[in-house]
Amino acid sequence: MRKRGWIAFTVCAGLLIIPAHRANAHLFGIGNATEWTQLLNYAQLCQSYLKQAQTALQSVQMAQMMVREGQQLVTHPTTSIASDLATLANVLQQSQGLAGGMAQMDSQFQRMYPSFDPRLTSYAAAYGNWSTSTLNTIHGSLNTAGMQANLLNNERNFMAKIQAMLQTPAGQDQALQLGNVIGTEEVAQLQKLRQLMIADMTAKGAVAAQQANAQAADQAGQSSFTMPKLTYDARSW
Length: 237
What we know:
Blueprint: H1 2-7, H2 9-15, H3 34-68, H4 81-112, H5 123-144, H6 155-165, H7 169-224
């Protein structure tokens, strides 16, 4: 039953390119598989994080346009620079956890399917590289803006710094530029994570399906071989 859940990798890959909906362990008749449910949740999370980052980025860019046109942001209550930056900071942290979860599932898959050769593509390492690259890029953006990279590790300190920046026009502009840089990078990185997940799930789905087909063929071969029915002659000579 657990291996049937891993076959659902290929179906999960397709779910990553459509709007997310509530996971159902019995979807497509896969069965009550823990891996299937977890992968559906991961697929939805990736899609949700990407949507959140895109929405926050669009809001920041709209605020920048309003400032360029001389409009006062205080007259537009729907514009919240602090809220958008808080969203981007939260998405960054959550996406790091998602990548870590996918790396753990890669190790679990290798234990369940010894024939899967991680030397061809180590997805656990790929998720680790994605996480490191994303953090380095975002931290570099913070350093360029004159902020400490570790501020993102403490939401309270990060938001206190942002609120202080928003008290002056120059600081407001700096906060908007920071949001634009972080948001643009996050959207790009989440798209890369999404593609990495699709490649990972597709590869594992192929391995799981191949092994399932091989097992089915073995079972079919065994059932086709039957011992002939032996009879004996009860007559005595």
